[in-house]
Amino acid sequence: MLKGEVHGMRIRTTVPVRTGIRERLTFDLFLDDRKVGNIVWFKGRMDYLPWLELDYDPWPRRIGAEVGLFSIIHDFLPPGGRFFVTYTRDHETQRLLFMGRNPILTPLGFSMLQAGFTWFKDWYFPEGGNEGSAKLQGNRPLSLQDKIRQLRERLTEAEESGDREISDWIRETLSKLLSS
Predict the structure, then answer these.
(1) In the chain, what are the domains?
(2) pLDDT, averaged across the chain
(3) Would you say the pTM of this structure is higher than 0.90?
(4) Is there a smaller number of Cβ atoms within 10 Å at the N or the C end of the chain?
């Protein structure tokens, strides 16, 4: 299960409960005693990569703990794993996505990018009724080569939008990756 400490707070989870699907569990996630959200975790099966969905209350962002929390989730997932984060309680991210902004140009998307996720999709509509709320998907890259390629794609998107902070962050990250 998820373990670690973020911003001086210990990650805690409730006991996982099995769902109707053998590989899928659900549990609550806390930082110390404050609930962050409910998690559905699909452990993967044959050709289906693992994924984790967080029905998220974005209060960790306000105290500077969001990137650290998402980094722990990133490291928990295997390469290629998917991370879905609902944004219905994240009004700024929701507003920007509904205006057509690129996911990395939102507070939620930039935190996911900083945590190591490099491919994004906005799931803003349910397709069959079982998908739940609107959510942002971030994928953990399969390899270092994929990470570099996808970061270069994100850099192009950030530069085209004119977002200097995100462009600079991606450039710096790419420079570190290419020099190691």
Answers:
(1) 5-143 (3.40.630.30)
(2) 94
(3) yes
(4) C
